[in-house]
Amino acid sequence: MMKNMVRIHWPWSKKKSPDSSFRKEKTATQDSLPRVAALAAAALRRTREIIGLTGSRLAGSQAARDAAKLLHDDLAKVCDSTASQTFLMNVGSYAGWIRWVPLLYIIALAFAWASLPMVSFILFLICAFYAINQFIFFRPVGEITHPKDEGINVHGVIEPSGQARRTIVFSGHHDSARLDTFSTGSKKEYMSTVFLPFACCMFLFAVVAVLTVGSLFGHSVVPWRSVPVLALLVIATVLWKMVLPLRTFFSEEASPGAGDNLVSSCIVIELARYFRARTRRGNPLVGTRLVFASFDGEEVGVRGSRAWFSRNKEQLIPPGTLGYHFNIDCPYRLQDVSFLSTDAHGTVHLSQQFATQCADVAQSIGYNVHSQKMPLLAGATDATEGARAGLSATTLMGVSWEDGRKSAPYHTPEDTPDAVEPEALEAVLAIAIKLVGTLDGLDGEDAMEASEDVTESSDEDAPLKFKRLTKR
Fold first, then answer.
1. Are 244 and 263 found together in one domain?
2. Which of 63, 102, 108, 307 has the most CB atoms around it within 10 Å of its CB?
3. 3-class SS shares of the chain: helix, strand, coil, % to 5
4. Considering the domain boundaries, does residue 409 fall inside one?
5. Mind listing the pLDDT tens digit for each residue in 218-258?
6. pTM, two decimal places
7. Does residue 312 lie in a domain region?
């Protein structure tokens, strides 16, 4: 996804003890239903623990694979079946081309001075074709190297008591983004590192495009004999140093990736824990298969989810059944929770009907949630691949967009567990649980109605229970 331009400091964040560990916390027993607040707290503790064990997790790195193993081990405790699947990807192909833009600029400028603007024009078109497919459409077209980076996707499945008529895939991703050189949030740094270099490239492209059109229509263009053209090339030559910052666009460090998006994978595990407890309590889902997945490679062009849907769709969502993809990404703030109806910079249509249904479910339990489109240059989520696989897909997000950019700490060093509001996680869990009950209610008793009579325990050592999903 597009990088955040402003670092946000969260005044309401509370510091947790650094040695807090999910595995040390007392959890609910198998015959009780945990409270949503407890599930949200457990998700944050698990997030903190995994970051403490693995650190930042670049796509395809050993740290990302270690995180996947930890998530798989937790899923194995609460799911009927689990899988850990490796896949190969080109991590560097997604954004590595940015570092070569300065060299492209110099070569194109040289051909323009040599009265060969068509060569420059073709070079620009090739680069633009590659960049647009990678960054806008999220399709790995034109990669010249073989995949060599190993990623791991993990998932667990809870089967219904009857025949599965629908499958709901809940997903997050456990890889974190590489930091860029303007992640400190300085607008001046953003201008010098991103905007001006690409503006210079567009200027040179416009010059060579004009020269190419002239040569195609038989007009002999000799730059040093045309004062206007000579002036333009001189300006382009003077500007070449402004393109050089793209050589160091990315740093060697990665974001902690708590809110984007390890906490979502941990939420997925808590959802699995909830529905396992519900099943063992004697109230299983009737006709809904639940899949709980965590992908690698989202930060390098949604490659993990692409590999996962290609491999698992036919088995988990056979023909004749309904498929839903409830993706979770960047659930930072409760007030910003919404559902996407488009993805991949708005170029991929998600399910407006499903997004609206999710928003309606949220409103029915007191959350002011709506659906919205992904703005241009705002990036993509794994729901892109769910939609391409034919599922009714949407992504729940907890960020807002301002001037086309998300005002949240993702893709920065500030993306720690403290940047995530527990209330936002509670909302995600409550909405997801209510949605499952609503959909499975088509086959039998609504899950939420079945749990409303569960009372709080008076024994402080007894398992956690709840009356309602939310106090709102």
1. no
2. 108
3. 45, 15, 35
4. yes
5. 655 454 567 888 899 999 999 999 999 898 888 889 999 99
6. 0.84
7. yes
